[in-house]
């Protein structure tokens, strides 16, 4: 019996600088868990880490691969392996209508337009939003636009989906809905968040600070230490 291919993000001895500022120096990380959370203060490198793993930024040194795909050099392979949702769906959505937005990534993958639109329609139906096809993205709520981005990413069939603070600017029902959508995904998930409560059921949590891994383990070990440190910092420097 053939084994399914192993899902693994391999970050090997990576050095990254952005605009001349060092972010990572010799970072090594191997992720195989279904649910991985990333926490850390502003500027600690959380977004940079998932952008690296999505192949959107290239390290100055070292190697990044996902399921064996060199995501920086093999962009076609990366699109079929990794999907990323940015903090703000408006930085992701390009097209006026929902159907065009969903079909775009599929066309980028080389599918003919008619086939791309058919898959996009199937994705909308799967999410119970067949009626969104001709809806204008800018007329949807923030939570609905985020769902459009998620459907667009899932349509491309990635094994991994990365979320960068997906709960920002969402009201409580919208945040709970997107959390439930994330929970039911068959894909492996890497979730960047400032809210430790979202990561309780995760398999692994990584705490970053200034580009270094401060703690890496089960949520029950990492999160209490992280929260305690954030509270200590708040007491040490009141505003
Ligand atoms: N587009 C960019 N161009 C240049 N430097 C950047 C860019 N984005 C982030 N950086 C720098 O990279 C470093 C890490 O930032 P990053 O956004 O990865 O951190 P973060 O932990 O996601 O922060 P936040 O919680 O504020 O989103 C910071 O020094 C930041 O100034």
Automatic annotation (TrEMBL):
SMART domains: AAA. Gene3D superfamilies: P-loop containing nucleotide triphosphate hydrolases (3.40.50.300). Keywords: ATP-binding, Nucleotide-binding, Transport. CDD domains: ABC_cobalt_CbiO_domain1. It comes from the Bacteria. One of its GO terms (molecular function) is ATPase-coupled transmembrane transporter activity. Residues 9-235 form the ABC transporter domain. GO terms for cellular component: ATP-binding cassette (ABC) transporter complex. PROSITE patterns: ABC_TRANSPORTER_2 (PS50893). Belongs to the ABC transporter superfamily. This is Cobalt ABC transporter. It comes from Pseudothioclava arenosa.
């Amino acid at each position: 019996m053939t084994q399914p291919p192993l899902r693994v993000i391999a970050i090997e001895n990576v050095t990254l600088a952005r605009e001349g500022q060092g972010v990572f120096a010799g970072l090594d990380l191997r992720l195989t868990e279904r649910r991985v959370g990333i926490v850390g203060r502003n500027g600690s490198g959380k977004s940079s880490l998932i952008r690296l793993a999505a192949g959107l930024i290239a390290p100055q040194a070292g190697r990044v691969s996902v399921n064996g795909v060199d995501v920086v050099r093999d962009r076609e392979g990366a699109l079929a392996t990794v999907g990323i949702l940015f903090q703000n769906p408006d930085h992701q959505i390009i097209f006026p209508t929902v159907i065009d937005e969903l079909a775009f990534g599929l066309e980028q993958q080389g599918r003919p337009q008619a086939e791309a639109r058919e898959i996009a329609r199937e994705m909308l139906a799967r999410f119970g939003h067949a009626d969104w096809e001709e809806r204008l993205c800018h007329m949807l709520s923030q939570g609905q636009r985020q769902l459009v981005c998620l459907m667009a990413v899932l349509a491309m069939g990635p094994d991994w989906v990365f979320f960068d603070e997906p709960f920002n600017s969402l009201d409580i029902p919208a945040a709970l809905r997107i959390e439930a959508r994330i929970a039911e995904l068959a894909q492996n998930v890497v979730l960047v968040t400032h809210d430790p409560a979202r990561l309780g059921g995760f398999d692994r949590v990584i705490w970053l600070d200034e580009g270094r891994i401060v703690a890496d383990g089960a949520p029950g070990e990492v999160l209490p230490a992280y929260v305690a440190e954030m509270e200590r910092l708040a007491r040490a420097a009141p505003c």
